[in-house]
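Quick start: load a record and inspect it. Here is Tripartite tricarboxylate transporter TctB family protein:
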Amino acid sequence: MTKGTNPSAETRRPDRAALIIAAVLAAIAGLIFWDVSRLSGLAGYSQIGPMTVPYAIACCLVVLAIWTAIEGVRGDFSEREEQQFGPVVWIVAGLAAQMLLLNTLGFSIATGILFALTARGFGKRKLWLSLPVGIVICFFVWLIFAKLLQLSLPAGPLERLFF
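Running the structure step on this input writes:
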């Protein structure tokens, strides 16, 4: 060790990613506050109304934004692993496929495809197995919501085959 160097006095640089996240959190909170301000006349006979929960969420987001900014300036976040874009692409592809196929193939098949591609993104390599498993699980979810709870979910050829 050379004279005059102190490893504990090493200065950390601000974490730019944390500061960007803090700014996004603050922007979302500001958007929620703006939206809640338009609901101010809707409180009924009590102080709790349709603006209560969004207001509480916006306040929590402000606290998280401040906390994240402080930690980002101090550089106290642990070292992050390098981002792997392959899994993200699989999951985004599943979401895009579900949105594009929902009205034509129905809830069960479109969401089963989302299930399989998300499983692939998380490392499950057997699409030939996860696709039918996802479709069966999603069909039971469709049964619960569409038939038992009487909610409107898009029906496709699989749902029409049984109902």
